[in-house]
Predict the structure.
Amino acid sequence: MAQYLLGRQPDDPRKPRVRLRALPGVTLTPPASRDWLSAVPGPWGFLANDRLGDCVAAAAGHHAQAINWYGQALNQGVSDADTITMYSAISGYNPTTGANDNGAMLSDGLAYWQKSGIGGNKIAAYAQISATDLDLIRNCIAVFGGVYTGFNCPQSALDQFDKGQPWSVVNRARIAGGHCVPIGGYGADYFECVTWGARQRMSVAFLQRYFDEFWVPIDLDWMRAAGTSPDGLDTATLNADYMALTGKPGPFVQVTPPVTPPVVDPPVTPPATDAVVLLTSLESQISVFLAAQQTPPHHGH
């Protein structure tokens, strides 16, 4: 049996954060399903999570790999060395001696991901989402490409993964430890994440039972050269959705697509109202958060 290690440390609620929520009185209806994982050519790789408790860094690397593919058509992941560099910085792990392999908090991972990046991949902003608002979670996956999550992993999930089975609730299963995964897909009765080098589905009941920490990372590589997201949302709409969820200005930069006559890009169908509402509530809270961090968002590859 392969070794599947964990490594999420519990969240510290005293740390500052932007909270993402829908505007009061607004009901969001997410698309029925979205999949921002299955087309990634891969391989995903363990990113050292088979020998270290570095899941917080490995999850960031897997999320970046999916964003690079769907946003930029680049099959570009991160290396084990990139992952260990991030893990060492956020946990105190010493790769020379092996000391302090004790895992890390998602909030520390996100702060490092924004400031320093992992394997050249940075996020521009991030915000926390309620673990009980499934419609908001689905909307964030659909609009921004995925969510970054933490959960209390039962031993049954390790056994199910080893057998190639989806995660489902097994009564009286003991908790093996905390784990971090990026979720990049969902349907009516499931969510899908990446962990230990593979895509992994789970039932909605499993997510509701064990997951207690959700964040949405905002990666500027989600915008294609044509000036739209993979779902066809333009910069103004993405920033409006972000403002709608956070009350802060959106981080997406206006892209002017190159025009090569005589080819003319077809007009983009106006986005659904929910997408606009989503990115307008997300924009207001992030500007305060970025100002508090005093770190101007930027992105580099």
Remarks:
- The beta strands are 19-20, 34-35, 125-129, 147-154, 175-186, 190-195, 198-203, 211-218.
- Residues 38 and 207 are 20 Å apart (CA to CA).
